[in-house]
Amino acid sequence: MKFLIDEDMPRSTAAVLRAAGHEARDVRDCGLRGASDKEVFDSAQQSGAVVLTGDLGFGNLHKYPLGTHNGLFIAHFPNEISTEELNRHVAEAIKVLTEADYGGNLIILEPGKIRIRRHIRTRET
Question: pTM of the full predicted structure?
Fold first, then answer.
């Protein structure tokens, strides 16, 4: 899997994903520091990447409809959580998620649970 890590996530999250065998880029390392959500989203779509973010705005289904993207993965945790703990939760989640869980879907990771809003495919899609 390919991931584009939003700047509200720890820099070390990309290393955690790479260690698990995934391709991961941090927006701060690819010219997108301070970019708008739309710019981050568009870059992820152009490169075939899933956006990994803490920004709940990416959960807006009107703005980012299911089935129209490579996947949106929101890590929704309290601000007080340590970087190590957040990365541990992300690492555990990517072990159980499959490629089919990402494409066109919205994944929300919270303490103790993973929720997936799935794009329902019809015969035309």
Answer: 0.92
Query: Is the residue at 30 inside a domain?
Result: yes
The contacts of residue 98 (CB under 8 Å, 6+ apart) are: none
Q: Are strands 50-53 and 2-5 parallel, antiparallel or unpaired?
A: parallel
- Rounded CA gap, 40 and 75, in Å? 16
Give the pairing of strands 113-117 and 72-75. unpaired
Instruction: Please write the tens of the pLDDT for every residue from 69-88.
Output: 999 999 999 989 999 999 99
The per-residue pLDDT for range 102-122, each reduced to its tens digit, is 999 999 999 999 999 998 866
Number of structural domains in the chain: 1
